[in-house]
Amino acid sequence: MLYSSTSRQTTHVPLERAVLKGLADDGGLYMPASIPVLPASFFERLPQQSLQEIAYAVASAFLREDVPDQVLKRMVAETLNFEIPLVKVEKDIYSLELFHGPTMAFKDVGARFMSRLMAYFNRDKDKELKVIVATSGDTGSAVAAGFHQVPGIQVFILYPKGKVSPLQQKQLTTWGDNITAIEVEGTFDDCQRLAKQALADQELNRRHLLTSANSINIARLIPQSFYYFYAYGQLQRQGKPLVFSVPSGNFGNLTGGLLAAAMGLPVHRFVAATNANDVVPQYLATGIYAPKPSVQTISNAMDVGSPSNYARMEALFGGELEQFRRRITGYTFTDEETRKIIRQVYQRHGYLLDPHGAVAYSGAGKFLSQTKEPATAVFLETAHPAKFKEVMEDTLGEAIAIPARLQRFAEKQERIVPMQNSFQELKVILSEA
Ligand SMILES: *Cc1c(COP(=O)(O)O)cnc(C)c1O
């Protein structure tokens, strides 16, 4: 299968090139040139199938021409070596818990799949593949966990000094082996700029094989469609229209859902739930797409002022506002509303939402209260609440438990490469590792 750029200026490329390049030469994002539609028999079988069986069928529809069957089966099994439970929170509202992976955020799904695919395409190359990722917290650790001890691959994580939570920093800096954690004297934007500069640098590209692990990579997007099918399979018998509420920043998770819908999954509606960074809900309301600098909130993984996957959504909807509106409803929630919902849901239903899941839950509730027809809403719970221990405890006024999986990181030795906000320094680090 071929992949085309959302900028439509370059010709179609094979999967290998799309995955190893990350970004298209014309600056666009890669999308499948045509989206496979799954047969009715696949949807009828969904309720009886396991998460891994479903994921394999979906992955195979995209990748069977590019990756041998047995390799693909193993990739899917290694990606989804954890559960994604669907938990009923109250009447008509379910939580799809995407946080049971190694770093306890939904980014584990995309990062693990991408790492296996990159390793496969790099298998016969004599040069090491250097993977660069800029992170404000969750992405870096999910990518590190995905690539740790994968032969032939070196990972460089750029993170802003003093701007990630203490536990997040532990999750970035304690891997060792083929993972290098670079602490940049600067902001997340500086990290992202340095990563882009490295990927575009001619001299570096002559000497090394470089690629990006940020969410622009198509290999992270495809696996993010798997769990939508799985959730649908479990709720199909209820026979009510299904709504997905997705807590959104760069909109990679929601775009994964749109991919599933384009493959034939009967989704009644998507809710784009955001914090104060509301570029997409604003676009849906006014028809004007106006990216702006991000503002800081308690759901920090969604603090994005210029969502990279907007280009993909635009491509899917042919750039038409009415198409957008037909599929997606946008809602935005303040930090105050988010905290209130966390308290309320905990008191009423005994369910602990993290700040991101709380935004999505609010979106689900608001949609159900405004629609006339009966519907079932699934909200995507994207991180374990303990990752945001300080915010959670401040909101609830009580201590919350840290799972062993996170606690383990806290006890490990950090290894940090300090760096000025300097591209020259980064070049030296990349070349010497
Ligand atoms: C990255 C992230 C999001 C936002 O996902 P996008 O695909 O960027 O929209 C939401 N919640 C958590 C916990 C995340 O880490």
From TrEMBL:
<feature type="domain" description="Tryptophan synthase beta chain-like PALP">
    <location>
        <begin position="93"/>
        <end position="379"/>
    </location>
</feature>
<dbReference type="InterPro" id="IPR051166">
    <property type="entry name" value="Threonine_Synthase"/>
</dbReference>
<dbReference type="InterPro" id="IPR036052">
    <property type="entry name" value="TrpB-like_PALP_sf"/>
</dbReference>
<dbReference type="GO" id="GO:0030170">
    <property type="term" value="F:pyridoxal phosphate binding"/>
</dbReference>
<keyword id="KW-0456">Lyase</keyword>
<keyword id="KW-0791">Threonine biosynthesis</keyword>
<feature type="domain" description="Threonine synthase N-terminal">
    <location>
        <begin position="3"/>
        <end position="79"/>
    </location>
</feature>
<keyword id="KW-0028">Amino-acid biosynthesis</keyword>
<dbReference type="GO" id="GO:0009088">
    <property type="term" value="P:threonine biosynthetic process"/>
</dbReference>
<dbReference type="Pfam" id="PF00291">
    <property type="entry name" value="PALP"/>
</dbReference>
<dbReference type="GO" id="GO:0004795">
    <property type="term" value="F:threonine synthase activity"/>
</dbReference>
<dbReference type="InterPro" id="IPR037158">
    <property type="entry name" value="Thr_synth_N_sf"/>
</dbReference>
<feature type="modified residue" description="N6-(pyridoxal phosphate)lysine">
    <location>
        <position position="107"/>
    </location>
</feature>
<comment type="similarity">
    <text>Belongs to the threonine synthase family.</text>
</comment>
<dbReference type="InterPro" id="IPR000634">
    <property type="entry name" value="Ser/Thr_deHydtase_PyrdxlP-BS"/>
</dbReference>
<dbReference type="InterPro" id="IPR004450">
    <property type="entry name" value="Thr_synthase-like"/>
</dbReference>
<comment type="pathway">
    <text>Amino-acid biosynthesis; L-threonine biosynthesis; L-threonine from L-aspartate: step 5/5.</text>
</comment>
<keyword id="KW-0663">Pyridoxal phosphate</keyword>
<dbReference type="InterPro" id="IPR029144">
    <property type="entry name" value="Thr_synth_N"/>
</dbReference>
<dbReference type="Pfam" id="PF14821">
    <property type="entry name" value="Thr_synth_N"/>
</dbReference>
<protein>
    <recommendedName>
        <fullName>Threonine synthase</fullName>
        <ecNumber>4.2.3.1</ecNumber>
    </recommendedName>
</protein>
<dbReference type="InterPro" id="IPR001926">
    <property type="entry name" value="TrpB-like_PALP"/>
</dbReference>
